[in-house]
């Protein structure tokens, strides 16, 4: 089988990162089909970047950045479609997907509720650092802020989460 | 405990995954798009033929996915990146995806330290492969230096961490193994630099300088470790004679085996390869000398110095073995150089005859 190295590289990245990107979109949209579409779109854009020889420092950060922008677009479109949705949805929120709620343990269900109680600026960094295990530098690439700011935010966010959970 | 509750909750969130069927269905959709990219599409790929001949939708996924899961699970693509060198398209994949994936599967500080040392060895092997293929550009040197320094820092951090939990003898042994590897690479690269004509000479010299700095730093760390080891042996008055005898026998056998291999390869070697083997043979003689010192010190009751000499013998034997093995990588280059030399000589002879 003769396969182009770019194709092989792309498939390997897909194998390694598709779950994480799907999960990120799923928790943020609470809709499996939408999350699957977003994941496919994120990888399509990665492929476009690869064939355009765009310089990518971290594939992971690149994919999460696209996924984040897709989520923002999704909520923007939803808001323009429904005024009710404006009150109900927020691009910074993490939702426990309804069709999944029976399949995950009670601790996971509990913690996603608590993450949702955090101020918006801490939700995403805490999620990306602890659930997706991204490095502060990678999160900084996604959010466009400095790694130092992100590190401080991760620590404060985690402290606040512990407070909410009642560990402090 | 609530902290425990956070951990369990996060672990629960991490468990959520896309199903295999969904994963494969989306991959196939993506492959359809890839197929339309000019030049970059898989050429004559059986996989692409399946995609083009199948009217694909998500409902069909499970049937074909089962076959694909097996193929993808074999990790063929990631294996393809294994041979990538600095500057290759797949190299970032190797460094950022394939190797970290392997790191995750490595459990325990000792195993992680060993793996970090192997990765240092990998970086140097990559550099040597670039040299042998004539691809060591200034950009490649920068990349090699960056990756090498990062990997060595990781090794040193892990080794320091290991010191807190593992027996000092084990830490010293791991460090000795690492030092032997980088020293061997330094010697091989120096020899390659000596044989290089103008092409790549500057880049090889830069690389040798970097590796030599790392060797010097490793030697310094080794001195510190050996001092600690000696002190701890004196404190515990540890006379583990059977362990010493076992190590002595292992090193003796290793030296003998390596010497046989060098002698065998030496007969067919020439040019650069012969010089690398010759250096390896010298290093092996030093190993033999260290081994003799270890035996005599042990007989005179100087246990700590005997152990130090034995460690040196082991390190040098390994150094010689690695150099000897590496010499084969440059056989092709030596052959080319030999042919070029013969051509040059023939031309010179012709010129003399014409005159």
Characterise this structure.
The complex is a heterodimer of chains A (168) and B (355). Chain A is mainly alpha-helical and 168 residues long. Chain A has 2 domains: 7-91, Rna Polymerase Sigma Factor, Chain: A, CATH 1.10.1740; 96-168, Arc Repressor Mutant, subunit A. In chain A, 74% of the residues lie in helices and 0% in strands. The radius of gyration of chain A is 17 Å and the shape is globular. Chain B contains 14 helices and no strands. Chain B folds into 3 domains: 2-74, no CATH class; 106-237, Four Helix Bundle (Hemerythrin (Met), subunit A), CATH 1.20.120; 247-338. By secondary structure, chain B is mostly helical. Residues 39-62 and 64-71 of chain B have low confidence and may be disordered. In chain B, helix 8 runs parallel beside helix 10 and helix 12 (271-299) runs antiparallel to helix 13. The termini of chain B are far apart. Chain B has helices at 2-14, 20-35, 46-53, 61-73, 76-81, 91-105, 109-132, 138-165, 168-195, 201-236, 241-268, 271-299, 303-327, 331-354. At the A-B interface, helix 1, helix 2, helix 5 and helix 8 of A face helix 1, helix 2, helix 5 and helix 6 of B.
CATH architect. name of the largest domain in chain A? Orthogonal Bundle
Q: Distance between the terminal alpha carbons of chain B, to the nearest Å? A: 95 Å
Structural class of chain A: mainly alpha
Largest interface: A-B, 50 and 47 residues
Shape of chain A: globular
Quaternary state of the chains: heterodimer
The rounded distance between the terminal residues' Cα atoms of chain A is 58 Å
Q: From the alpha carbons, calculate the radius of gyration of chain B and give it in angstroms.
A: 26 Å
Q: CATH fold name of the largest domain in chain B, please? A: Four Helix Bundle (Hemerythrin (Met), subunit A)
Percent of sequence in beta strands of chain B: under 5%
Stretches with pLDDT under 50, minimum 5 residues of chain A: 83-89
**Total number of β-strand segments of chain A?**
0
CATH architecture name of the largest domain in chain B: Up-down Bundle
User: What is Rg of chain A?
Assistant: 17 Å
